[in-house]
Amino acid sequence: MKHTKGHPKGLYLLFVTEMWERFSYYGMRALFMLYMVQALLFDKETASQVYGSYTGLVYLTPLIGGYIADRYWGNRRSIVVGALTMAIGQFLLFLSACFFHEIALAKYLMFCGLGLLILGNGFFKPNISTMVGRLYTKDDKRKDAAFTIFYMGVNVGSTLAPLVCGLVGNTGHPEDFKWGFLASCIGMLLGATVFQILKNKYICGPDGEPVGMPPTKYTQADKNTPEQPSKSKATQRTTFMVMGTLILTLLFAVDWNASGWSVFANTDWIGALIYATAIIIPLTIITDHSLTGTEKMRIGVIYIIAFFVIFFWAAYEQAGASLTFFADEQTDRHIGNWEMPAAYFQSFNPIMIVTLAPVFAAIWSFLGKRGLEPSSPRKQAIGLFLLSMGYLYIAFGVKDIEPGVKVSMVWLTGLYLIHTMGELCLAPIGLSLVYKLSPVRFSSLMMGVWYLSTSAANKFAGVLSGYYPEHGTVRHFLGYQIENLYDFFMLFVFMSGTAALILFVISGKLQKMMKDV
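== Peptide MFS transporter ==
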C-alpha cells in the first residue's frame, strides 16, 4: 500500500484524548504530595510511600485493562470506561480536599478516589497506546514519528496541568487544593467526551475498517500463528499466574530479621504485590506454547529493556516526589516580587519536551539517512546516561550548602533540561519498540507488561523518595549513607549511570535478537 505523507486524522484524535487524560493525571500529581503533607499532615516518608503505591498501581492495572480489551471489550470501550472512572476518582479527591479539616473523612475519600483512578487508568492506558500503531500498516515507516507525535500530546497535557491546577490549587492555603483536583476532573471529562463523539469517524485503519472494536474469536493475524491453546490450558495458565503471584507476594511479605522471621509485621503489601506481579506475569506470557521461537526472542528483548527502564523511571519520577519537596523547601522561587508556586516546576519538563521533540525527530531522521542512527537499545542507554548526568549536575549545585539555605532555580531547571533529553531518547522509542516486537494477539497485553516495568519503577521511586534527607537524620540504603542532599542525588547518579553502562554494552546483542525490526 502506498503511504501518504501526512498522518491519519485518527492520530490527532488520540493525541487530544491522551492530552486531556495526562492533564488530569499530572494536574493531580502536581498537588498530591503537597496536599498530603500540608493539608492532611502526613510526614514525608509516609506521603512518599502512598505516592509510590498509587503511581505503582496506576501502571500495574494496565495488565488487567489490556487483557480485557484483547479478549472482550476492544480498545474503544475500554478507553471510554477508563476515562469516566478516572473522572469520578478525581471528583472524590475534590470532595476529600473540601473536607480536609475532617482528617478521617478526607483520608477515606482520598483513598477511594485513588482506587478509582488506579482502576480507570488500567483500562485507558494500554489501549490508547496500542491504537496508535493500528492506524498504520505493519511496514509503515511513519510509525516511529507517529509515536513521537502522540508522545507530544502527552506532554502538552502535562505542560498545561501544573500551570492550571497549580495556579488554582497551590496557593499556600490548604483549602484551595480542591480547585486543582476539580480542574483535573473537568479535563478528564473533556477527553472522554471528545473521544466518544469522534471515534467512529476517525479511528480507522489503513483499509478504512474501524480500529479497536471487540475482538472476534480469531483475528487474521492469528491464522498464521500456531494453534491457539485449548480452554483447559488457558485456565491452567491463569491459575498458575494467580497462584504464582500470590505465593511470591507472600514470600516478599515475610519480614526477615535477626531473630528469624515474622509474618508480615510491617509489610508493604502493595509493594510486594507489584514486585511479584512484575516477575510472574512476564514469565507466564513468554512460556505460552502458542509463541514461536522468534516471538519469544523478541518478547525477551522487551523484557530486558523493560528491566533497565525501571532504573530510569525510578529516578525520573522523583519529579512528583522528592523533587517536589526540593522545589518547595530548598529552591528560591522568587522572580522579582512574585514567588512561583512549587507545582509550576512540573511543567518545565513537558514544556521542554514539546520544544525539543521535533528537534530529536529531525536528529534521528538526519542520522538515519546516513546510516548513523543508534539502535533502539542504544538510544535507551543514552537516555539513562543523560538521567545520571542530570542528577550529577544538581548534586554539585547543593554540595556543601547549609541546611535551610535555598539554591537558585538554575539547578532544578538544568536537571529538568538534561532529563528531558534523556526522556526523548527513551520513552517514545520504547512505545514504538513494544508495538513492533509484540505478537498481534498479545499487543495490548504486552503494552501492559511495558507499563508493568513503570509500575515497579514508580513504587521504587516512592521508596527512594522516603530517603529524602531531613535535618539531623542519617539514612542508609543498601549500605550507602545518605546524610544530605548531595548524598541523596549522588545515589541516583550511581544507580542510573551503572544501568546505562550495562545496557550500552549489551545493546549490540539485543539488536541482533530483534533481527529485522
